[in-house]
C-alpha cells in the first residue's frame, strides 16, 4: 500500500485514495454567537410560506395549530361525513344516491390525506372563481408541503376547500352544506339570548326627547359601547370549537345582560372601543356613511351583528351596511347566503322556538320584518367575493383581489368579525403581543386607499397582537396563570386601524 503523502495544505491522504474527512481548527477565530433573526421580515421576504414573524405550523406541538391539525379537523370532517350519510339515507332517486355516494367517497379520500399527512395537491377545476388563486398559491409556495408543515392557516383553509371540492364536482350536490344542520340547531338552542335582544330592540330605537343634546349623545354612546360588546361576544359560539357543548354552556357564553357585559369588559385586552365610537360618530356629522361587516359565524353571531347594524342605521351613524359572507360552506359555521336568508326568514315565518311566548315570537318577527325592509330599500346589502374563501391572508388582498380592495376602500369603516378574519388580517404568525395592530395587518393599514378597519375578535387561537406597550408582559403573565387563555374565548380584542384615505393605487 502506498505511503501517505501530504498536499500543500498539510492534509494527509493515501496516494490514489479519496481524501479523508477534513477537520478545520478554528481556535483563532471569534467564538460563535447566538444571532437572533430580525423580525418582522422585510416586506420583500414575506410570502404565504414565510409570514412577517414565524408561522404556526401543525408540527408545533406547543400550539393550537397542532391540536387543530391532529384532532379537531379529523373530528369535524368525521361529523361532516356523518351528516352527508344521514342525507344519503333519506334519498330515493338512484341517480342522486349514487352521486352523493361519490361525494362521500371523496370526503373519505380527504380524511385519508388529512390523517396520513399527505402532500397538498392542486384543487380540481370545479368552475369556482377561486381555483386559479388556489393553484397559483400552491404551485408558487407550497410544492411538496404537507398538512403538518405548511403554515396552519393555509393548511386549514386548504382542508375546507378540498371539502367543498368533494361536492362541487358532483351533478346534484354542488351546493350541499354539511354544516347546515349544526348551524340551525345551535341557533335553535340560543333562545334565551335571542329573546333577550329581540324584546329590547323590536321597537325602533328612541332617545328621550326631554334630554339635552349632550345627554342624548351620551345615551347613544353608551348604547353603542354596549352593542359593540354584544357584537363582540356573540363570536363566542364558534361551531368549529364547540363541537360537544351543552345547551347550558351555550347559554352561559351567550349571556348579553348589562351585568354580564360590564363584567366582561375587563377581559377586552386590547380595547379601542372608545376610539371606534369617535370614528363612527364622525360619520353622522358628515351626513352618515357606509359601514362594511366582514362576517364570521352564522346563527347567533350573525343575529348579534344584525342587531348592531340595525342600531347603526336607526341612529343615523351609518346610512348603508354591507355584509360580506362566504360563497360556500367554510370553517364549519361561517355565514353563507343560505345562512343569511334562513336567519331572516326563520325570524319572520319560522317555528324554531316552540316554548317561546307570544310576546317573544312577535318581537322576533318584528325585528326580522324591519331587517328585510332594510334589504328592500338597499340599506342592507349582502355580498360574497371569491377571495374570502382562498388560502391567502388579507396582506395579499390588494394584489390578488384589487377589485375587492378598491370596493372596501370606498367604505367609511370595515369591521372584521371573529377569529379567522383576525388571523388573516395579522398573517397568523408568532408576533409579540405588544405589536401594534397597524403593523400586524401590514398592507391593510399601509397601502394607499386602505380603509379604516376594526377587528372584533374573541381570542381563540395563538396569534395575539395590539395589547399595547406592556402587551408582552400581559401575555406572559396570562400564560403563566392561565395556560389555555389564547384558546378559551374568555378574552377578546377590539382593535382599530385608521387607514390611509385617498385614491387607491392601481395594481398591475
Q: What can you see in these coordinates?
A:
The chain is built from 19 helices and 9 strands. 45% of the residues lie in helices and 8% in strands. The radius of gyration is 26 Å and the shape is globular. The strands form 2 sheets. A 7-stranded mixed sheet has the order 3-9-8-7-4-5-6. The chain has a two-stranded antiparallel sheet with strand order 1-2. α6 crosses α13 (358-377) and α12 packs across α13. It has helices at residues 64-88, 94-115, 131-141, 152-168, 180-188, 191-201, 213-233, 247-253, 258-264, 273-285, 300-314, 337-349, 358-377, 397-400, 402-409, 418-425, 437-440, 443-446, 471-481; strands at 4-6, 12-14, 268-271, 290-294, 320-325, 380-384, 413-417, 453-458, 492-497. Residues 238-247 and 504-508 have low confidence and may be disordered. Belongs to the damage-control phosphatase family. Sugar phosphate phosphatase III subfamily.
